[in-house]
Specification:
- With 199 residues, the chain is α+β, with helices and mostly antiparallel strands.
- The chain has a domain of 128 residues: SET domain (Beta-clip-like).
- Helix content is 39%, strand content 23%.
- The strands form three sheets. A four-stranded mixed beta sheet has the order 1-2-10-7, with no helix packed on it. A three-stranded antiparallel beta sheet has the order 3-9-8, with no helix packed on it. Strands 4-6-5 form a three-stranded antiparallel beta sheet.
- The N and C termini lie far apart (129 Å).
- Bound molecules: zinc ion.
- The site of zinc ion (ZN) has 5 residues, from helix 4.
Length: 199
């Protein structure tokens, strides 16, 4: 192998993590950073591997490691995804995601796979699971699009309900005035009649 081809091979070996033929890039999301599609990604495509050192819960030093990028494979094995090269760690949670984690405990590997067709510019996300949701997202309120939409809808419904109640109150108040007016008119009418009768 010539020197230049050796260099090319080395460059190829070094480059994959930053290579532009990957269909995603790290970008700004609502909650900080996120992973965004740069090319159309077909449903079913393996997008990126979630990788990092494998931790063994039976080793006390491993069991003590604590960070928000730990991906539990099963009771024993966990991937520590906090390493910089693990771009999959930028993928945010969504309750209505366009990707999923394909967990392979035996191989000790996790792949993020598209479960819908993803368009360039779309943020890639997957469901982190109920344990994570309950521990980290529920207390602060999930910021995913689906939950934001739900909250917006609830707010709109609450506003509509308030408006309805107001309208009902206004109608009642209006009905009262009409009733009072009617009484007065009746009173006048009677008074008129009485007056005429008197006359
Ligand atoms: Zn959500």
């Amino acid at each position: 192998m010539g020197f230049s081809s050796l260099v090319r091979v080395l460059v190829y070996l070094i480059m994959p993590a930053t290579s532009s033929n990957k269909p995603y890039r790290v970008g700004r999301s609502k909650t900080g950073l996120g992973l965004f599609a740069t090319k159309p990604i077909k449903k079913g495509t393996r997008i990126v591997r979630y990788f990092g050192p494998i931790l063994d819960s039976r080793i006390p030093a491993h069991d003590e490691i604590e960070n928000k990028y730990l991906f539990e494979l099963n009771g024993r094995w966990t991937i520590d995804g906090s390493v910089r090269k693990n771009l999959a760690r930028y993928i945010n949670h969504s309750c209505r995601p366009n990707a999923e984690s394909d967990v392979r405990p035996r191989e000790r590997k996790v792949f993020i796979r598209a479960i819908r067709n993803i368009e360039p510019g779309d943020e890639i996300n997957y469901d982190y699971g109920t344990d994570y949701f309950k521990a980290y997202l529920k207390p602060i309120g999930c910021k995913c699009d689906s939950c934001e939409k739900k909250r917006k809808k609830l707010r709109a419904e609450a506003r509509a309900e308030t408006a309805k109640v107001k309208a009902r109150k206004a109608k009642k108040a209006g009905a009262k005035t009409t009733a009072t007016k009617k009484k007065k008119l009746n009173g006048k009418h009677f008074a008129g009649k009485a007056g005429r009768a008197k006359a």
